[in-house]
Amino acid sequence: MRRVLHIGPCESNGGIKNVMLSLANNPPSGYEASLLSSHKTGSIITKWKAYRKAIKSLSRIISRPDAKPDIIHIHTAADWSWRRKKRFVIKARQANIATVVHIHSGKFNTWLDPSGTNSPSAKRATKMKKFLSEQKVQTVVLSEEWKAILQPMIGDVEVISNPVNPNLVMDSSIERIGGKLLLLGRNDPVKGHTFAIEVATMARKSNPEITLSMSGIENCKEDWINAMGWISEQQKIENLHNSNILLVPSKWEGQPLVILEAMACGLPIIANDSLAQLPDNIGKASLENKQQWVDIILETIESNSGNIDFSQQLIQYKIENVQQKWLQIYEQLIEK
Q1: Quick one: 190 exposed, middle or buried, by C-beta within 10 A (0-12, 13-18, 19+)?
Q2: Please, which pLDDT band fits residue 135 given cuts at 50, 70 and 90?
Q3: 180-303: CATH topology
Q4: What is the dihedral angle through the alpha carbons of 95, 101, 105, 106, rounded to the nearest 10 degrees?
Q5: Residue by residue, what is the 3-state secondary structure of 168-202?
Q6: Would you identify the CATH topology of the domain 2-163+318-335?
Q7: Tens digit of pLDDT for each residue in 162-215?
């Protein structure tokens, strides 16, 4: 049995954690998987200590023949996330272990080239392309759109979508709460909590029964807004099943896992139309046009659509299909 070690923020709340858990719990045939946490929510010092602890743990793991992995699968965002993860890549290379650099960030290109032109000659892009070419590495992104953007900047990349949690299914026995809008995301301006409040406030002028439930924030003065803070996986599933519409007004995302989760639960969705590779048959609106969001919200509530069957669109995201793609990547890397 071959071994794959996933390294990343598997103990920090967020989409990357959920992807890591899904992949580790469902490794390709012939592989066993384990997790190594490289991040901890908190101050810069807290994060640095978690990183140093992970580096030391990796050193111990790769020094033991009975534990040494065949593949090290590194999950990274941009900026300081990648700066830290580079050290893991170097350690893997020193131990002659094949490595996957799995990019989850929706702003990796703007970090590589702050000018916004996605230039392959940008300083960070040039350095990263050179670094990756010197390692036994396969870079993986989440969509063909991201491949088209990043491959000219950092070299060869493959595309594998995030998997949908196989435990998420539609449940017609749970009644959706009419007018309940839902936003799931950490407390970060990029996730669009303020935008969601603004469009919900506008929509309530036509339909005062509208409510808004949001994770990530803990306080709100409006009694029609439920500030849930960080919620458990079970609470998230309950909200996906009983809400009327999921709002995704994020400024950027690598591939919004919450959209796939909502689709699996049959929940109608409205998302920022500039996000990469959005599925068909979901609502899309511009962050520059709040009235467009309001109109789609009101139309969706009025239609009382209940559950939507997204099953055909979710085929490529099924864990068994994603497993096969990772198996191909792992085997090709080991052969190299």
Answers
A1: middle
A2: confident
A3: Rossmann fold (3.40.50)
A4: 160
A5: CCCCCCCCCCCCEEEECCCCCHHHCHHHHHHHHHH
A6: Rossmann fold (3.40.50)
A7: 999 888 888 888 999 999 999 999 888 989 999 999 999 999 999 999 999 999
